[in-house]
Amino acid sequence: MERSSGVLLHISSLPGDGGVGSFGKDAFQFVDFLAQTKQKIWQILPLGPVGYGNSPYQCYSAFAGNPLFIDIPQLVSERLISKKSVTDQQFKAKKVEFERVGEWKTTLFREAFSEFQKNFKRYQDEYHTFMRHNSWWLDDYALFRSLKTKYGESVWNTWKKKLILRDKYIIKEAFSELHDDIDFHRFLQFLFFRQWFKLKEYANSKGIRIIGDIPLYVSFDSVDVWANQDIFLLDKDSKPTQVGGVPPDYFSETGQLWGNPVFDWERVAERDFDWWLARMHFNLRMFDQVRVDHFRGLESYWSIAAEAKTAVIGEWLPAKGYDLFRKLKEQLGTLEVIAEDLGVITPEVEKLRDDFSLPGMKILQFAYGSDSSDGNLPHNYTSNFLVYTGTHDNDTALGWFNSIDKKERKFLHKYITGSGKQFVQNFMEQAWSSAAFIAIVPMQDVLGLNTEARMNTPGVASGNWTWRFTWSQIRSNHKVFLKRITEKYNR
Fold first, then answer.
1. Which class for 472: exposed (0-12), middle (13-18), buried (19 or more C-beta within 10 A)?
2. What is the DSSP letter of 254?
3. Which residue of the set 26, 221, 393, 445 is catalytic?
4. Is 125 a catalytic residue?
5. pLDDT digits over 467-477, tens only?
6. Residue 368, domain extent
7. Residue 329 lies in a domain
8. Residue 193's CB: how many other CB atoms inside 10 A?
9. For residue range 305-354, what is the model confidence (pLDDT) as tens digits?
10. Which of the residues 26, 213, 221, 293 is marked catalytic?
11. Are the C-beta atoms of 32 and 477 separated by less than 8 Å?
12. CATH number of the domain that 326 lies in?
């Protein structure tokens, strides 16, 4: 890795008139902003179609994209949607209204699908190429979403028994019965990936690499679990017997109970890691580098009884991440993978990370709660890391600074002085000046925003993931400062 820096900003947080960030002109303008300030990295969150709670870490598929990110003006310019159909919608500029935006865009997508069918010859070759490369996951996904619509969005293990068990005759019947809706979902994925790769190509042309994000677990209500029930710990009624999470930690006294089904690693290995390898290859084609969220769960994972109310009681069980990465390395050679190695990290987890030369993560907000030996303090780590002022799970730097107690603030001031927005800039500069190969700052910290701009609060079920910025919030001094520290510290 070369010494570099970048900004963490999810697609949904981009500006624009459509109520949610998209792959449209504002995304291209953000790439220009990164290039102007000498950044080389754009890090985003998972891009999958979100379910209840709108969390990008709880998606209906580990492969599909979220149609909300499809840019409407591009579809108008291709005459798939008429200009008069795109009526003026008054969406909030600084907050995503997921439900309203979803309803509005779905109506427009239906019109686009109708036009697409009428003018199919225009897209025929491109669409068939897309299907040839993606039908291995897309057919199941499109069927899954169509069945969810048919059954009132209910969870898949409440459907008819033969559908739950994927009886091949029933599946064939469902494909026939729901073919139009299935084709609609295939069409949305065609649009999504078409626009995504256009944006990625532009970013790469400007010298910007994109870091994607892979959640360790998948949502129970996902096509991945429905279509691969044997690689998850489920009972005879297709309900999870054990679920994932983490024990009590920095974020929560009762731990984090995520509720995702955990992998049956013995069965994953028996299948020669096929699902995991497909997932890794797919993401490494979509992005220039990927961060594996909760990386430590690939060495051992916190297994909690499905009926538990908190994550306090559980047990660490072994995973087979070593075998997985060995296979992946045999296939790819170089692994463009980042280990999110936060939380309780054991020597075994460090060995898994280091044996495959994977960079880890350091968070400055975690560095000032103890003493000068803290592993998150820049003088205590080496270069093979990414350093962050904070992540999507942290408060903003300013919000964090305003909330810490006197003891932590006193220790912090041994290293970083100032308060308010001056502190935030000094905080960023400490990350940029560190030995870490890569320094990343959330866009909220670039803008010096307070707690109201926080992206996610772990353990809080609703109200997350909605933050957006507007172009008017970027002042010339923000650009000047970001460019200056990037040049000053050889990034």
1. exposed
2. T
3. 393
4. no
5. 999 999 999 99
6. 4-63+210-488
7. yes
8. 18
9. 999 999 999 999 999 999 999 999 999 999 999 999 998 789 999 999 99
10. 293
11. no
12. 3.20.20.80
